[in-house]
Write a structure and sequence with these properties.
alpha/beta, six-stranded parallel sheet, binds NADP nicotinamide-adenine-dinucleotide phosphate
Length: about 250
């Protein structure tokens, strides 16, 4: 049995564990296990993979996506640019373990966004400036889409929510929610943007996938905007992780 798992803390409900165990069952993969490894202190990570040679990969989530970088031997180009890792591989040769860190949130976002883009979608507003937003910035730069960061504090972004007006919204046709506002159970909350200035030319993308339709997306849809939740991004990154782990020698 080879082993994969999720590192984070705390780890309550996990999409990943259910996703991979369902996949293993459906695809009759019987020689891999996926489990949760809630470690509060990332310095405990080396002991975990060194004590059990069956580990060959992990997913990494909050709060370790940045700190894990000092435990890997190499970063992928995306992880290096984004400065966050959500997937690692462990290749072993004798006693030596070689760790590489990847960021697959970026590919999940890119591949789920690209099919929706039209000629009218020229510039973006990114709401929130945390870890997930960094992967979104990387993809927007890669796609050549200029963006402004909307943050609660002036120091942390280009604009604050109270500075948004009809002109700014007219000029930014893609609005991406990278804040946790509207996540279950607080489903009656939404980012404070002037929804009355949203129209059919807008594309509203929410990284949140629970609920399926956040209040942010619902209010955009009511104004005629195209909407997209974070579920495909999550699925694409999960499959990309699997592909990466399968290349470990
Ligand atoms: P995070 O670092 O905890 O927060 C992101 C940013 O949101 C913060 O830096 C903050 O930016 C803003 N924010 C936080 N609390 C807020 C509040 N009460 N009101 C307004 N803004 C607030 O989270 P993250 O890891 O970047 O993740 C962000 C969201 O993306 C989460 O909902 C997560 O579940 C989702 N996500 C989805 C996927 C996917 O595959 N679909 C992948 C990764 C993450 P400012 O301080 O600059 O305002």
């Amino acid at each position: 049995m080879r082993k994969l798992g999720l590192l984070g803390y705390p780890l309550g409900h996990s999409f990943s564990k259910k996703y991979y165990l369902d996949k293993f069952q459906k695809e009759q993969i019987t020689d891999v296990d996926y489990d949760l490894y809630p470690i509060a202190d990332i310095r405990d990570f080396p002991t975990l993979y060194q004590q059990d040679e069956r580990f060959y990969g992990f997913n990494v989530t909050i709060p370790h996506k940045q700190a894990i970088m000092s435990f890997v031997d190499e970063l992928s180009e995306e992880a290096e640019a984004i400065q966050a890792v959500n997937c690692i591989t462990i290749a072993r040769e004798g006693d030596r373990a070689y760790l590489k860190g990847y960021n697959t949130d970026a590919i999940g976002f890119e591949e789920s966004l690209k099919p929706l883009l039209g000629a009218q979608h020229r510039k973006a507003l990114v709401l929130g400036n945390g870890g997930a937003a960094k992967a979104v910035f990387y993809v927007l730069r890669k796609l050549g889409i200029p963006y402004l960061i909307v943050s609660r504090t002036k120091e942390n972004g280009d604009l604050t929510y109270s500075e948004l007006d009809a002109d700014i919204l007219k000029d930014h046709q893609i609005i991406i929610n990278c804040s946790p506002i509207g996540t279950f159970p607080k489903i009656d909350e939404a980012p404070q943007i002037p929804y009355e200035s949203i129209g059919a030319e807008h594309l509203l993308y929410d990284l949140i996938y629970n609920p399926e339709e956040t209040l942010f997306l619902r209010r955009g849809k009511e104004r005629g905007a195209q909407t997209k939740n974070g579920y495909d991004m999550l699925l694409i990154q999960a499959e990309k992780n699997w592909e990466i782990w399968n290349n470990v020698q």
